[in-house]
Amino acid sequence: MTLVLGVDIGGTGIVAGLVTADGAIRDRAAVPTPAADGPVAVLDAVAAAASRLGGEFAAAGVGSAGVIDRGSGSVRSATDSISGWAGTELRAELAARLGVPVVVDNDVHAHALGELWTGAAAGRRHVLFAAVGTGIGGSIVVDGRPHRGAHAVAGHLGHLPVPAAAGRPCPCGGSGHVEGVGSGPALLAEYRARGGTATTLPEVAALAGTGDALAAAVLADGATATGQALGGLVNAVDPELVLVGGGVASCGPAWWEPLRAAVAAEVLPAVRGTPVLPAELGADAAVLGAARMAWEELA
């Protein structure tokens, strides 16, 4: 059976899987990302993860953190979550290590493609995918393909302005962006600033689930801001479906209900019925989406 390799390179972990043509993961391996040791160490870790798998593969697809230039196969820009990652010739370096054709893209685009292949968006062609976690990323899928834009930056949903973030700093260096109020770290920081004592976002979500007023209010405020941004995008891109993944999306009804209400309040009448649904595939999504790119490379 012919297989391809799907790889998800994140700031803390690398996951590789052997994937069939119908989207089944036959084997997987995970290794920590040696992020502080620089690009060579990270690329070697990808090759090491691939070597742990019990089979050969005909091509590899890679979803990576950073702004990825699909055409050149390089990392155009990146945060310091992986030291020196910007400028890495990702496709060429991995092709040399793996000995097969390699295709690369941003990890959130890969996540969206995985959900379109075998997950919650299967069968859809126009999808707005949002990953709400440590940051807020996304992918705007048009006719089955992620829209990457003129500078490979399309999908950075966290840097949309929202009223609740006015004057608040954003990790990008700007201010007023939804990531500054809707991301996981922003929610936890706001909860603590209002006098809460929980130390992790899952604890805040658990408290909200038991009726704790402070925890519920913080989640609702962040979800409302995120929903406003997503609702505006629904008006702009007219998707069949809004799909939301990431760690914050695990916060339960206290987050989902105000998120959906905020989207509904923003959208135009013609798109008011657009579903807003949770992603299904979790950590497998980016591996599957990367593998899907590899299958397309072979076609």
By DSSP (H or I, 4+ residues per run), the number of helices equals: 9
Q: From the 3D structure, determine the CATH topology of the largest domain.
A: Nucleotidyltransferase, domain 5
Oligomer: single chain
Write down the CATH class of the largest domain: Alpha Beta
Radius of gyration: 19 Å
Beta-strand share of residues: 15-25%
- Based on secondary structure, the structural category is alpha/beta
Q: Helical amount among residues, as a percent range? A: 25-40%
The largest sheet has its strands arranged as 3-2-1-4-7
What would the principal axes of the Cα set say about the shape?
Answer: globular
For the secondary structure, the number of strands is 12
Mean pLDDT: 96
- Report the uncertain regions: none
Order of helices and strands: EEEHEEEHEHEEEHHHHEHEH
Describe the structure.
InterPro entries: ATPase_NBD, ROK. It comes from Saccharopolyspora gregorii. This is ROK family protein. With 299 residues, the chain is of the alpha/beta class. The protein folds into two domains: 4-112 and 283-298, 2-Layer Sandwich (Nucleotidyltransferase, domain 5); 123-278, ATPase, nucleotide binding domain (Nucleotidyltransferase, domain 5), CATH 3.30.420. The chain has nine helices and twelve strands. Strands 3-2-1-4-7 form a five-stranded mixed beta sheet. A five-stranded mixed beta sheet has the order 10-9-8-11-12, with helices on both faces. The longest helix has 25 residues, at 213-237. The protein is globular, with a radius of gyration of 19 Å.
